[in-house]
Amino acid sequence: MAKYLLLKHYRGAPPAVNDVPMDQWTQEEISAHIQYMNDFAARLEQTGEYVDGQALAPEGTFVRYDGEGRPPVTDGPFAETKDLIAGWMVIDVDSYERAVELAGELSAAPGKGGRPIHEWLELRPFLSAPPTITE
Amino acid sequence: MNEALLRSLTPEVLGILVRRGADFAAAEDAVQDALVEALRVWSADPPRDPKGWLVTVAWRRFLDATRADAARRRREDLVDEEPPVSAVDDTLQLYFLCAHPSLTPSSAVALTLRAVGGLSTRQIAQAYLVPEATMAQRISRAKRTVMGVRFDQPGDVTTVLRVLYLVFNEGYSGDVDLAAEAIRLTRQLVAAINHPEVAGLLALMLLHHARRASRTAPDGSLVPLAEQDRGRWDTSLIAEGIETLQAALARDRLGEYQAQAAIAALHADAPRAEETDWVQIVEWYDELARLTDSPIVRLNRAVAVGEADGARAGLAALAALDGGLPRHTAVAAHLHERAGDLATAARLYVEAARQATNLAERDHLTRQAARLNAARLNAARLNAGR
């Protein structure tokens, strides 16, 4: 088994094919989209491949240590150029091929006109624990 | 066997152990063990005296656990008879201890659910979506924090109310219904202390709980108050909430929970959204603002003013408030829509969705923007075809 992180971006990914913001959709299109996402997660729970998923707010801040006795330095939020994560899903699957297949399914979530969004999702393998048997 | 009934004995049993001289942290562990044991054996062999059974088993567990020399020496000094103190007082002391001001809100919530509510660490962890080990750590740190607190000193009931309010308001879910649990714990507190704000909080919870079934659509989306199917509101909970509130208000010691409950009661009283008595609601918000000085209250008041005196008046009330307040943009969007400025409202709904702090609210606000955009598009098409 191998764990993968599926990353959805607000910004920073190549543009989707059906790239229309949600406030330009109809109520039915929004409902269909949410239903698709919920069904997808529920199906992965059924197959035993779902680990976790969360959505993130678009506002974020960079923080770093600024030396002994000083409060941390904060920076941001940044201008439109920065890559911005919208949310993630962690899956635990048997192969890279399966991870790609699932990411493809998630990217097919319906958008404007009920057509797939074809959104680019980033697929990142977890670095796993070292195996017990190495020889 | 009814698990909630079993758990309702928790504070009494724990109080008895502490009165006998057991320290709070060890006694609490022992009571948890006894609860687990009860769940295991009672269904096949229910005892005639459940409380006596729990006290005996918990006390034995406590003695087993305190085997160290120092503990044994101390144990010889322990009293094996219960001093004449009522269980009600013990229960109240436990509420105070678990909501002690030295605890952070999340610790106080966890400790209350375990020591007063009798929930297991696993159940609390599931309810708050954190790993069980994390929750176990949070609870044991909380117990260490209150270790030196004397059990016989009265605490501050307002900190207890805040903890119960937090439990009720938390939207997470597991196999434990936190809202129902908060109501159960608040009822228990009402029985232990005669205080109008405790009754006010219970009334507030009952009135909100009554609307629960109508608050979400089958697809999980939020249904705003004005659009809820009022036929699905729980009338017996509303009746109990209003009765509880009236008894509290009659004592003429108004507090923020009674005032909030009064607003909830006015909503519950309206058979249709259009019949809501917004003028009285504004008056209660004025009262609430005097009591709490909370900017959130003034934000909600602006919504009420918008209904009572028109959207323009609502926007004027809103203009006096800090634009950075949570939900400020959402309220502005709503008031602009009521004022007929659909373009501004749609733009603000999009912005409010971006600022939303939970997914259900974000989806709801995005839907509002989409609804207005579709309406504007249709209007433009009609004009073009003319």
Write the layout of secondary structure elements.
The complex is a heterodimer of chains A (135) and B (386).
Chain A: E1 2-11, H1 27-47, E2 50-55, E3 62-64, E4 73-75, E5 84-93, H2 96-107, E6 122-125
Antiparallel strand pairs in A: 1-5, 1-6, 2-5, 3-4
Chain B: H1 3-8, H2 10-19, H3 24-41, H4 50-65, H5 69-77, H6 87-98, H7 105-116, H8 121-127, H9 132-145, H10 157-169, H11 178-192, H12 196-209, H13 212-215, H14 235-249, H15 256-269, H16 278-292, H17 295-309, H18 311-319, H19 328-338, H20 342-355, H21 359-385
Helix pairs in contact in B: 2-3, 2-4, 2-6, 3-4, 6-7, 7-9, 7-10, 8-9, 10-11, 10-12, 11-12, 12-14, 12-15, 14-15, 15-16, 16-17, 17-18, 17-19, 18-19, 19-20, 20-21
Tell me what you see in this structure:
The complex is a heterodimer of chains A (135) and B (386). Chain A contains two helices and six strands; from the N terminus they run E-H-E-E-E-E-H-E. Chain A has helices at 27-47, 96-107; strands at residues 2-11, 50-55, 62-64, 73-75, 84-93, 122-125. A four-stranded antiparallel sheet of chain A has the order 2-5-1-6. The mean pLDDT of chain A is 91. Chain B is mainly α and 386 residues long. Chain A: It comes from Micromonospora sonchi. Chain A: This is YCII-related domain-containing protein.
Average residue pLDDT of chain B? 91
Number of strands of chain A: 6
Unreliable parts of chain A: none
Structural class of chain A: alpha+beta
What structural class is derived from the secondary structure elements of chain B? mainly alpha
Organism (chain B): Micromonospora sonchi
Domain RNA polymerase sigma factor 70 region 4 type (chain B): 95-145
Pfam families (chain B): DUF6596, Sigma70_r2, Sigma70_r4_2
Keywords (chain B): Sigma factor, Transcription, Transcription regulation
List keywords for this structure.
heterodimer, A: 135 residues, alpha+beta, Alpha-Beta Plaits, four-stranded antiparallel β-sheet, two-stranded antiparallel ribbon, 2 helices, flat, B: 386 residues, mainly alpha, 21 helices
